[in-house]
Amino acid sequence: MENLKRNIAIVCGGDSSEHDVSMHSAQGLYSFFDKERYNVYIVDVKGQDWHVDFDNGEIAKIDKNDFSFVKDGKAIVFDYAYITIHGTPGENGVMQGYFDLLHIPYSTSGVLVEAMTFDKYVLNNYLRGFGVRVAKSILLRRGEENKYSEKEIEDEIGMPCFVKPAADGSSFGVSKVKNADQLAPALRVAFMESDEVMIESYMKGTEISIGCYKTKDKSVVFPATEVVTKNEFFDYNAKYKGEVQEITPARLAPETARRVADETSKIYDILHCNGIIRIDYIITRDEDGNDQVNMLEINTTPGMTATSFIPQQVRAAGLDIKEVLSDIVENQFN
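Given the sequence above, the corresponding structure tokens read:
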């Protein structure tokens, strides 16, 4: 019966450069959700403008006091929020804090974990304490652009290196720097996206990405996806304009694939995550030719279009994305 269905908000948009990417993820999720089980609405959040988008092009304003809206003269209150904002305020703990205040369950991890995973420098240094292999990095804050000389950065981090926003998504503001002369312009680009910038050592190897989710009674690690691009790195054009080859499952030695899955499950538990996360790794080789698993970053609101990594991996695992989403929602009501 219609009135017994849970009302699900797919919360999308946001205030970062990845607003439009988030809107595509929302459309993907809307197509995946079980409509016989849930009433599903797309909620577009940008600045102070929060509204529901209907199929016919009409909108309804969200009442932020209780995260409700009015349809046909009747107030609709949401039972659950599926957050698919890439960047602020949905990936850094801000939106999570709002839903915590309203006691509305949501699809991501909690405030602290979201804030930590959003800040790449903080996350890397936290997980390093648990034995997770991460790249060497230094942090610069706005106003500290001249804290280190180009030579000091080169001596500490090496060349080439990556300059990236420390607290933002991974699609904008990222540069691969091949020599010290390129540092200053790369920093300017990164500071356009974030007040904190991370300079990170380059690791040569195979880039992979792997999703995971857990409920009270199951732990699921999907097959990894190998990322092959002729671009300098997995940048915006590679991600969203098809300049990449994505191979699922990744071409890894069975033992390495097992280690990646185990590491992903371990990190999920260390952080006490919720919902689907996606972890990016670089597989490098040591001096003896053995594979080394290096974590790059964690995405707690991974892309969810039909061609995104997670839906690919769900299909490769022989699972139904509709059932996976239902699993995640119902886990917080059981």
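The CA atoms of residues 140 and 147 lie 8 Å apart. Try to locate this feature in the token string yourself.
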